[in-house]
Amino acid sequence: QGNVLLADPTGSGKTKFATTLAFTLFHWLGENGYKDRSNALIIAPKQVLENWEDEQRHFNILNKIESMGKLSNSKGKSIEKLQKEIEKVDILLIDEAHNYLNWKSKRSLRIKPKRSAHIILSTATPINKRPDDLLRLIELLDIDNLSDIDLDDYIELRKRKNKKPLQILEK
C-alpha cells in the first residue's frame, strides 16, 4: 500500500502536486499491470472543487470528485452511493484532511477506506495546528501500514500526549 501525506502551508500548490501524484500513480499502475485498479475518488471542500476540476483538465485525467459536505449532510441513497464508491475505490484523495480530525464525526467515519490501496491526504494542518493533529492524520493514512519500528514510535508519541492510542490499535 502506498499512502501519502502532503503537508504544506495554504497556497503552496498542494492541489497541483496531488494531481501530479495521482497522474503519476495512474501511469505506474498501468505500466505494472494494474490498469483496472486505477480508479480514484477525490473528496474536497465545495469551495475548491473547481480548482480540482481545472487541474484534471490540465492533465487530461478524469477522477470522480465529490464535495466533503456530502459526507456530513447526505442521507439515504445519496450517502449509500457515495459510501459504496469510497469502499471500492483504489485511490482515495482527500483534500483539506484537517477537516477529518474528529474520528467520531460522520465525515471521518465515512471516509475510512475499506480497500483503498493508495490514500493521499492534503492539508496545512501540521503547519497551522497542533502536533496531535499530525498523529490523527497518520491514523487516517492507516497505521496498519507502519513498520514495526514506526508503529512503536507512534504508540510512544500517543503515550507522551497522555492519550491512549485510538481504538484501531485495540482491535
Quickly describe the structure.
The protein has 171 residues and is α/β, with parallel strands linked by helices. Helices cover 47% and strands 15% of the residues. 23% of the residues are buried.
Key phrases:
alpha/beta; 171 residues; disordered C terminus; 47% helix; 5-stranded parallel sheet; 5 strands
Q: Order of SSEs, N→C?
A: EHEHEHHEHEHHH
Helical/strand content category: alpha/beta
Largest sheet data = 5 strands, parallel
DSSP helix fraction:
40-55%
Residues in β-strands, percent:
15-25%
Q: What integer value in Å does the Rg equal?
A: 16 Å
Description:
This protein is α/β, with parallel strands linked by helices and 171 residues long. It is built from 8 helices and 5 strands; from the N terminus they run E-H-E-H-E-H-H-E-H-E-H-H-H. It has a 5-stranded parallel sheet, with helices on both faces. Helix 2 (49-59) links the parallel strand 2 (40-44) and strand 3. The protein is globular and about 45 Å long. The chain starts with a strand and ends in an 11-residue tail after the last helix. The model is unreliable at 164-171 (pLDDT under 50).
Which helices and strands occur, and which strands form pairs?
Elements lengths: L1 E6 L6 H18 L8 E5 L4 H11 L4 E4 L1 H5 L2 H13 L2 E5 L10 H6 L6 E6 L1 H4 L2 H10 L7 H13 L11
Parallel strand pairs: 1-5, 2-3, 2-4, 4-5
Helix pairs in contact: 1-2
